[in-house]
Structures
1.
Amino acid sequence: MIRLVASDMDGTLLDSYRQITEENISAIKELQNNGINFIINTGREYQNVMEILDKAGLKCDMLCTNGACGCDQNGNILFQHFIPRETVKKIFSIFRDFDLVPTPFSQDGRLSILSKEEMRQYIKDVMVPAMQINHPDFQYTPSDFQELLDNCIYVDGTEELLNGTHHNILKIISQSLNPDSLVQLRTRLEQELPELAVVSTVPTDIEITSKNAQKGIALMEYAKEKGYTPDEIVAIGDSENDYSMLSIPGLHSVAMENAAPMIQDICVYRTRANTNDGIAYIIKCILADRENFELL
């Protein structure tokens, strides 16, 4: 019997405008009203996830920052897995060798070692174009741009970040219009810092967390605490950072129609694209027969 549904956000629950559609909202509420737990399992940070859920009028538990942080629906911290400060220092040193910009995330949200004006240029010239290479339908409005810029916590350079005591780092990401540079960066990180988990959601980005901070590990920590077994869980995703979650033995794994080939290959089921309310469709299938779940 299905008791828990775990959903990724980008490319899965969210549409091209990074919003939850009315059809998906309605389906999630119906799922919850039928006694099935729904949780978010995403690379996004807690603050950003809460903004999206509040806008949609939804409440649920969250596994955030690729499994580095877990929070209940009221914001109470369930667990956190930080990258040690000395490891962060080594990561930044490797980034400098490739002339790439690291964007760290702490328990307080997105940090920037760039000034606000430098960040504005980085978003315009690198971040958004890198996303649009892989998602041509990706829409970024002027208000989205300004919100991202304003929601950064600006740190006065690398030294302040590394030597201060305020920020503990949960994740570091970067984007580049040159995927080869990210491949080389990833190779160095994996060779020199095996205590890290390194993934790419698309060829133009990279995400770095502690080895203990992965979506699959976080989901099973949560499931154990709540008393769920893998055969009672449906998990849905689309990209490499969902692999650890969707490859859990016995779990009902669902790939979005728009999922990367590596995700399509490991999943038992497939649902519609994120631009066609794929979450609502899979929920409809679950509610049709939660005792013997299968796609209709």
2.
Amino acid sequence: MVRFLHSADLHLGKPYGSMPDELRGRLREARHTVLDRLAIKAREGGAATILLAGDVFDTETPSPSVLRQALAAMAGHDGLSWVILPGNHDSLVAEELWATTGRSLPANVLLAMEPAPIQLAQGVIVLPAPCTTRRPGRDLTEWMGAAATPEGSLRIGLAHGAVQSFSEDGGASDVIAPDRAARAGLDYLALGDWHGQMRIGTRIWYSGTPEPDRFKHDAPGRALLVALDAAGAEPTVEPVETGLFDWRMLPLAFLPGDEATERLAPLLPSGTTRRRTLLRVVASGRARPQARAELETAIAAVAPEFALMQLEAQALVTECETDDLDRIDRAGALRQAADALLVESRDTTRSEGEREAARDALMRLFSYCAAMS
């Protein structure tokens, strides 16, 4: 039996420019230390090799410290070997990156820099498809079918890119044949690029990123522990959690009359995990202005306990009635403005965007007056 850990999309050195300064540093450190967590999971699962299917680095020009510290972390795990495949973010175009890496390469790290068989162990062959550019525009795994390997060898493909019509960058057309494992006689095809873990077939998997970096996939960071008994046998694939931070979407549907605090509080994660949780509350449905304001207040009150907490309320329709406007003012300029906005928000001759803008303006006016009262 051969066991290995399949991972990808570490994106070491990712800047997280849109995040607050303090959180930015914590997220960068979590991405670096995921190398240690991958090594721990490999040892626990009896794996001697970690296959990194592309995008180990976030850019083609990582800083010297990002590069050297990553290699030092890998070198520090004696008894484990690492195989690094260039992905679309750190493709072969990055000649200086890979030349520098080669000059500093630890003995237990191997670079898969060309489409040629690599012998991991006796009877275990890796067939890599390194990304030639950010968007190669062709199926780089095609060569695997004609690759000669010794009779009875385990054939493990290693590639980075889109299968069918999806890609982490969006907009890529079909690139990697979804039946490449069958066509090329592969026992397993380890893929990177899609940051969510995904099974394409019994022999083809995306490992997903080991440390999430966005809300898109709404799942913990994971890798895959893969066991191959013999050539032709179906692999055993076990997801293992590796992420430090939890990026979570929290759907919150409202009906008129719902109390915001009562709806929100039971859905929040426990206090012991909040410092490592990035939470996006996705509100939808319909709410009166008072409930909408209470929701914003409730989120603002608890947000400091989280690594990050955001409210996404584009799908939450704020419904105003006359008595809601009385909370703004009963007469005068503010009431006249509120009345005009309410009329605009209900005017079916206007576009939905214009009505939504009027509702948003009315909500801001409501919140302003509530804060001043």
3.
Amino acid sequence: MTKPTHLSTKEQINLGSFYTADFLVNEVYIMLKKHIDSKNYVLLDSSCGSGNFLHAEAILKSGFAKDSFSKIIGADIDKMALHIAKRTLDSKVILLHKNALHNVARENFATTQTDRLIIVGNPPYNDRTSIVQNHLKNKDSIQIDSALQHRDMGISFLRSYERLKADFICVLHPLSYLIKRTNFSALKDFVKAYKLIGSTIISSQIFCKDSKGYFPIIIALYKRDSRGMDYDYICNFNFKTIDGKEFSLNDFDYISSYIDKYPNKKRVEKSQVKAMFYTMRDINALRRSKTFINKENSNTIFVTKEKYSLYCYVDVFKLFLPHIPYYFGNCDVMIDFQQFKALESHFIMASESKILSPKILQYFRDLLGVHYGYCEKV
């Protein structure tokens, strides 16, 4: 299962194509095997690339029998990748040259309405409107059904799985699709029809070792469920990482409960402004952005005297980013508000002097607990 090298950097970005290591494919099938033991399923990877998820040895290694699936199907928009797949896969695997986001219907994937369907894979994910490598992105390069349209191709793929009414789905995608409320809402009918039942979180470093920043990717197992799931379900879900850590979003309180994260010019009088702060998004954005600023711009948050200490807290939090693991990268800044209030003056002093007291150091050790001091692994 060799990694195809036929795509240029520009083509990889436009197609969102980064191929999947064998041990991650194995993780997918191990997760599936815990919940599925039947020979009556059709297996589909609608963005199969060169077919890593469809190799017989990958399926057998996880404990599935050779004839576990009644039919195995792979589809991809990349014709060259399919040529590679055809040379390396079992001749019984059905390969389709198809844009999986256009004319999405079972009959277009060699599947009937009565088939019990499992979808696996590592679908492309790529925010085609973001400024990251924007000069390489062709926003009109792929035709997508109107109901599936979204600026991030990965969300379009998850919506497409709902259209195909898969019984189980086990795929890799950014964790932010679930834990960021706006992204979760953007999944629309998908979250009304599926429930997350298994997870393994990995770092994007596995795919892009030379990237300037890493983000969490989840190997997510979904089961079709008439009740679906809401955002509270995700907040209470116990996520697991590939190296044995566990957490839920509700393990922490977050700074967004106490301050403005985005420009607030219309709500704050000039006379109340004590300082100015740069727009906040999540922890990964904080790694790249400024905190306190001297000159007003379109991303300015006006800080009042009453909220000044909380923004000092964020400024100090940034100093501790090397101790915060990748899997929290898309979370808001965490805070223990009661302990913060007890150390409020210490945080102001630490922000203004950049000298950290022992009490501040202990605060962050207590806040992060087993997650503090994490050394990133792949």
